[in-house]
Amino acid sequence: MEQQQWQRFGGASLNEPIAEAVNNALLAEWNAGNTIQVCLGTDSQVKGTVIEFATVIVFVRKGKGAFLFLQKTMLRRQISIRERVLMEVDKTVQLGLQLNTVLEKHGIIPEVHIDINRSPAYKSNAAFSAAMGYVSGMGWICRAKPFAFASSSCANKIVQ
Fold first, then answer.
1. Bridging pattern class, strands 2-3 and 66-75
2. 28-56: b or e for each residue (b if 16 or more CB lie within 10 Å)?
3. Which of 41, 70, 85, 88 could anchor a disulfide with 151, C-beta 3.0 to 4.6 Å?
4. How many CB atoms lie within 10 A of CB 71?
């Protein structure tokens, strides 16, 4: 799996480990008087023989907009929709684990957004119960479509 460096939405690379970058961002927002909600999410898109993943950390300034950090990953093999959706969820959970100490230090419980439809009419629903249990078992807030904007909108825009 090929993984790019973490970057800001505008394309500027983050020159420090992601936990340090998140800590610095949270400190800057706190010093500016902002209340921050952190949402994590991953989405993917199949492009020929490659699956492109985008994982995002969305910092929502309550009442004042948002900004995000992102990382792209590419996988060069074919997998089922269920496996791909569960890989998205796992990438998000692994990021949450990386950031757990920093987020706890700031008193933030992250929202994990999963790009899975609640309706059985959609193929992604095959992984819904497993994904919800995995995230909820970590003690985090789990949001699925249509409330999962970090994965369904932000990460989706990056892989489109």
1. antiparallel
2. ebeeeebebebbbbbbbeeeeeebbbbbb
3. 41
4. 21
- Residue 4 backbone phi and psi in degrees, to 5: -90, 165
For residue 114, give the 3-state DSSP assignment.
coil
CB 94 within 8 A of CB 59: no
Q: What one-character DSSP code corresponds to residue 126? A: G
* Per-residue pLDDT tens over the stretch 93-149: 999 999 999 999 999 999 999 988 777 777 777 778 888 888 988 888 999 988 999
Sequence length of the chain is: 160
pLDDT in tens, 58-109: 999 999 999 999 999 999 999 988 899 899 999 999 999 999 999 999 999 9
Given a contact cutoff of 8 angstroms between Cβ atoms, the answer to whether 87 and 43 are in contact is: no
Tokens of 104: 């706890």
The 8-class DSSP code of residue 144 comes to -
Helix (H, G, I), strand (E, B) or coil at 80: coil
Half-sphere exposure of 72 (CA within 13 A, CB side): 16
- Helix axis angle for 81-105 and 128-137, nearest 10°, is 20
Task: Note the Cα 138 to chain centre separation in Å.
Answer: 15
Q: 1: Cβ–Cβ under 8 A, 6 or more apart, which residues?
A: 73, 74, 75
